[in-house]
Amino acid sequence: MKLLLREYLGALRERGELDAILPDLLSALGHTVLWRPGVGTTQHGVDFASVGPDENGRRTLYLFVIKAGDLTRADWSATPQGVQASLDEILYVFLKTRVRPEHKKLPVAICICFGGDYLEPVQLLATGYIEQHTTSTRRYEIWHGDHLANALLSGVLREDLLPKPLRSSFQKALAMLDEPDVAVHHFGRLVAQLLERAAAEPKAKIAALRQLYIALWVLYVWARDAENLEAPCKASELAVLASWEMVRPHLGKKSKATDALLRGVDQVIKLHIRINESFLESRVFPHADKLHALSLAVGTRRSLDINLRLFDLLGRLTMQGLWLLYLFQRATEGDKGPLKTQLDRYVDRMFALIANNPSLCLPVKDEHATEVALALILWSGVAVDADDGRAWIAEMVGRLGFALKSHGLYTCHLSDYADLAVHPVSSDEAYRQEVTQASTLVPLLAAWAHAAGLDETVAVLDHLAKTVLAHCSFQTWLPDATSEDALYIGGATHGAALTDLPVTAEGVPLLALLAEEAKNNASFHQLSAIRSGMWPVALMAFRAQRLPIPPTFWIDILAPAEGFPPYADVAVPMQLNDGQD
Amino acid sequence: MEAGARCAKLHNAGELDARRLMHDPALANHESWQLFPFHSFVDGVVADLDISVDEMIAFLPAVAPPSQDSGLPLGGFKRWCQADARRWAAIAGEAKAGNATVTPFVSVALQASDDLDLISEFIHLGGSDRAMAIHALGHLSTTGDLPDRTLTLLQSLLGEEDQVNADLVFSASWVCDHAAGRVQSAYERLIAKAAPLAGPKTVKEFARIPQLFSKLLTPAIAASVASALDRTDLDDANAVANLDQGLRQLLRSGFEKQAIDIVSRILSTEGHALTLSDFDDFGGALKAAGLRDQTMVRWLLSGEPALCREMTSLLDVMRSEGSPLKITDDDLALSDEDLMYLCRKSAGFLFSKPVSAASILVAVLRVANAQVADQVSALLFDPLLTNFPGSVTRYLESLPRTDRAYAGSRAALERSQSYEDDLSSVGRLRELAPSEEQRQTQHRIEREEHRRISKEASDKSIFARIFTKKLVLHGRKVRSVVPPLGSGAPRVMETELHGQSYSYELARGEIADTVGVHYQLFRFKRERRPT
Fold first, then answer.
1. Residue B70 Rama label (left phi>0; alpha psi -120 to 50; beta)
2. DSSP 3-state assignment of B97?
């Protein structure tokens, strides 16, 4: 375990990455963190400060100078950002002017903190400096990777907090990074075990959150070194949902524990966003403009694999965009500009991805209607070029009709890979009917097509609904009273299917029905993630559980200025078998 | 036959009795391969034999009884009848009197008579007599005005009965063929009259005209033949096979337009399941005549799905990517819209033979203006180069600088190179790779599929019926011990094994965007020609 942590700490690239784990590490050791500096700011040489017990239990003021990786001569001697320069600044400025009155009488430990090795060439230099400046009330400590690893193992990751079974899951997750599904499986077991141990007590939850956070960090850094970010991307989704599960019973309660839990959740979410950003910026965005580049990068001989991977990728991209949208909605005016630029870029990249990887113009799995919905929500939320989204909807419907009629790779409700791998098994009508008994994609496209004024597209869907899909039950899903307890970490089936949605050329009956059901769907608004305004968490949960995005979330986007009419006024009359109304 | 003639001479001289052959048991069982020389001998005997009519009627069947493999040899009998008019008259008389034993001889006797009046009598008897008489009309002498009068008689007999008409057409063709063109006009009139009356049997005879009587084909005859062939029962596989052969011969005889028009019409109409692959002979002849490529262009421009659908069956089976078509500027005297329409049709219907499709686009590049050239170049890129970077690139790179299509093809190649560079630039993205479970599932499915295909191919293999199968587990040679035929030591035969492989370029789009590729091709194929 220590080896794992040493590797992880040594691989931390930026100073900011080490900053990220120090607070939890120190908190676990009983420290109180005084402040966490932002990027580029420094308090006269001090990167980090805390107050906590030393090895003798004496309350001490700790001042940290942080460097990434190994400590080298260059790091020591560099000006103006070198370690020695920082130590001098602490000595001659910080200690004289910046120590708070309540801390003035405390002994001071100035810690040179780095994740890598303490190299020999610099040891002589540092030792000399330390000997010269050590006093009875001021000492210097070297917190290298080994020390930090020990601190982690004796603190947040100590045996009683992270016992053997959990460590085993964690180690297996790291060992199987080249098989992301396996790594995520083991990480999922770690998460489940942490949740189980966290139970109801806030303190245990706070500890579990810290462990989750650090475990995710370690996984991310290892995966980054292994050049395969798939596992941490998926694991971070699990982590966000698990952390929300831990915090949701405490929402609305004003207490220090709740604050600590929310901070923990915030950390996990930020790490999740960071991991996904790293993945998208390095792996996806540079190639989104290249025709078929990402499709063929899947490295498979089967078009199904490309379709599945790209829709998963689309989901990840759109969720990241939606997180940005969430941050944008809460940003101050001054911060909105850069966030808007980023948002526009995400939508631009999303449509570049779709345009250059046309497999994204029709999902094989009906389940991927969730990713389609997320993309449409992001598109509408950012209000960029309307034609991109409209063109995409029209192309999807055109391809769906063609694929169905030609018995090609049409959307079906199958979800098991072994079944999808041989789909379509045959080109007879019986098989096609069997695998298209229900659809959430068709009503989703119908609703958005109608709202976008795509009359021809709506007509195609109407034709399909009357012919090749006449047998199909068009559906969506709405949460119910049992959803809150099952949504974030899965388990029991929950919610209600809204079936037999009318897909017609008129379009209004469908929209009116969805709007009415959405209005009456109180359970949706009672979901903790929705109630507390953390709607991206709810979207992540729907996606993780492969549920359709409830129309409650998006129907208002499609509403005309005058609103939707009552469904009763526009309901499609039921046809009896003899054709009578 | 010379031996037979000598035998007859000896019989006539009284030195032997040829009639004794009737009871010779040695003649009873001869092998089928011996028939031809034997019948030739019998013909020689019969032609000059001096025996009575009754004796001849008994002699011939006894000596050369008809079998499954052959009828009576009657060549010599015909000459025997022609030598003495009383002989054929006697047989005709016996036939009219109802003597069934003379039935096998009636037709030939009538042939020998050259007597149209006598033959007419038999025609009016109807039934098998009529059939024999009509058959005889086709084998009369060709002296004087007999052929002309024969054709007149034949034409007068054309009516509603399909079998009769079929016999008449055949006989008329035979007469005209042997009359060395002297009755061509009469023949043309008869054929023109018979064509609109053609039932299935008559159509079959019309299909045989180009095959058996190609010298008779004139534009008028060819038009009548085409008219009759249009009446082929397309649900009858045999009739279609005959039609195919007839069309092949029409093509070979220089009547390409008629043949192509017939196929075009047939495949364009609904109500049958025929495709181009049902006209293999026609297809082969089209290729041999150097007309395949222009015909393909014509059919692509027509946009008829039935004509275009299996067009690839006209192309070389051995080259999976197809071979370049030879299209001249004259074939492409079209408007800009039509040129682009042709290009899209080519890409759609010839997608599985990408080099053939590309060659049509290249031909268009040679005659296109700048605007059209840009669009063609774009089509060369997508879908041809994006899907078949190997074969299409090799083809385009083979174009010399002097080729008028060089610039346009270069533009497409550069765009393709840029596309390939982009693909290569991505490197390995492990995050996108299918999971181990998915890979294992795919491998299992592929293994099962390969096993199934292998078994199916093995079951259909022609070698499966000829050789016994033996599985060699190890090694790259097989040493077999062959026992000796007679005495002697067994021999060891060593056979070295070699690998055999077959490769073809799969459309990249089938993997990257299978629905998209098929959807694009579908739109190309369904596009209507600009009016």
1. beta
2. coil
Q: How far apart are CA A424 and CA A411, in angstroms?
A: 10
CB B402 within 8 Å of CB B369:
no
- CA-derived radius of gyration, chain B: 33
Placement of tokens 């078009």 in the chain: A303
Please name which of B231, B157, B164, B149 lies closest in space to residue B198, comparing C-alpha atoms: B231
CA distances A389 to A248, A306, A560, Å, are 35, 21, 18
d(Cα A441, Cα A476) in Å, to the nearest integer? 9
Which of the residue ranges A1-15, A313-327, A334-348 has the most confident prediction, judged by mean pLDDT?
Answer: A313-327
B443 touching A (Cβ < 8 Å): no
Please give the Cα distance from A173 to A182 (Å, whole number).
Answer: 7
Q: How many CB atoms lie within 10 A of CB B336?
A: 14
Residue of B nearest to A293 (CA): B423
Residue B52 CB partners (closer than 8 Å, separation 6+): none
Element (H, E) at A139: strand A138-143
For A85, the 3-state DSSP assignment is: helix
Residue B450 pLDDT = 92
A108: enclosing H helix or E strand: strand A108-114
Name the token pair of B379.
């089509």
How distant is the Cα of B417 from the closest Cα of chain A, in angstroms?
12
CA angle at A394 for the pair A393 and A398, rounded to the nearest 5°: 120
In this predicted complex, what is the ipTM?
A: 0.82
pLDDT of residue A28: 77
* pTM of the predicted protein model: 0.82
Name the band, by pLDDT with cuts 50, 70 and 90, for residue A581. very low
pLDDT at residue B423 in the model = 95
Which chain B positions have a beta carbon within 8 Å of A397's beta carbon?
A: none
Residue among A357, A403, A421 minimizing CB distance to B445: A421
- Identify the band that residue A434 occupies on the pLDDT scale cut at 50, 70 and 90: very high
Report residue B471 CA to chain centroid gap. 39
